[in-house]
Design brief:
globular; four-stranded antiparallel beta sheet; Methylamine Dehydrogenase, Chain H; mainly beta; about 300 residues; 28 strands
Length: about 300
């Protein structure tokens, strides 16, 4: 499957994937950006200069997701080849390949304490793992693929967004979800947890974001504004801003406290599949089916280009 042609614009700060880009993350020290592509590779970039530092091949199919560990020493990547790879950032080398899911590995997230990471797959399961790659817990919250995952601030529970239009709050040791968040009427493609752990935010193909009380699952608000379905979600490190990406190619920035739209970022020619904020809260990186990775100035809403 190949992405469509790119628009002729100023060269993106990060340029080089020949196929759609499905995953992106920003290292916690702000120095590195990782991208995951249907070209079967992971790439590491200098976040300031835009220089490609290394290309990490090895997956046997497209790479769907990447996530840096909180201590910045490890990168994990998930693939349509059903595996998760663990990479050492210092040596830029492969540490381990995990035969992770019986279907595509679609989403990855670390717990903030770095003691576990969680994966979501097209085998309808979410799994938690030790940093070394040993499985801790397997969840089967529904009968549809798990499209998005997130961990609570204390790492004691997880949220999984499902193609069945629900999100589930999962607790290790409990066979059934602690909470089922029902309200969307299409697949849940994005989930994040507020930094105080009190609120869960979900994003769906039904074009809405919804907020929920994490303790009880009580619906708090519905945020509207996207005209096409929402594919991804991110929350800023300071917890003040939410970013959502759509299959229209647009990115919307929202005030996390009020749900008020702050700005709309336009520039992608196709679906935005992943978003990640820089640790300084001032920049945002986006990955798209249009084969590009774009870096944005959050304050101005402008794309940061090569040489700018």
């Amino acid at each position: 499957m190949n992405a469509g042609p790119r628009k002729a614009t100023a060269r993106d700060l990060l340029a080089g994937h020949p196929n759609a880009v499905y995953g992106v993350d920003w290292s916690k020290d702000g120095k590195l950006i990782a991208s995951a592509s249907l070209d079967n590779t992971v790439k590491l970039w200098d976040s300031v200069s835009g220089k490609q530092l290394i290309r990490l091949p090895g997956h046997g199919d497209g790479v769907s997701s990447v996530a840096f560990s909180p201590n910045g020493k490890t990168l994990i990547s998930g693939s349509l080849d059903r595996s998760i790879k663990i990479w050492d950032i210092g040596t830029r080398s492969l540490v381990k390949t995990i035969d992770a899911h019986a279907g595509f590995v679609w989403s990855l997230a670390w717990s903030p304490d770095g003691k576990t990471f969680v994966s979501g797959g097209y085998d309808n399961t979410a799994k938690t793992w030790t940093p070394a790659g040993s499985m801790v817990t397997r969840f089967s919250p529904g009968k549809q693929p798990i499209l998005a995952v997130a961990a609570s601030p204390d790492g004691r529970w997880y949220v999984a967004g499902s193609k069945d239009s629900n999100a589930y709050v999962l607790v290790p040791g409990q066979a059934q979800p602690r909470l089922t968040l029902s309200g969307h009427n299409a697949a849940v493609e994005g989930v994040v947890v507020s930094h105080d752990g009190k609120t869960i935010i979900t994003a769906s193909q039904d074009k809405t974001l919804r907020t929920w009380e994490a303790k009880t699952g009580r619906p708090l608000s519905t945020i509207e504004g996207h005209t096409r379905y929402i594919q991804c979600l991110a929350i800023s490190p300071n917890g003040r801003m939410i970013a959502s990406g759509s299959n229209s190619g647009s990115i919307r920035l929202w005030d996390a406290a009020t749900g008020v739209l702050q700005s709309t970022l336009e520039g992608h020619a196709n679906t935005v599949y992943a978003l990640a904020f820089a640790p300084d809260n001032r920049r945002l990186v986006s990955a798209s089916f249009d084969r590009t990775v774009k870096v944005w100035n959050v304050g101005s809403g402008r794309r940061i280009t090569a040489g700018s």
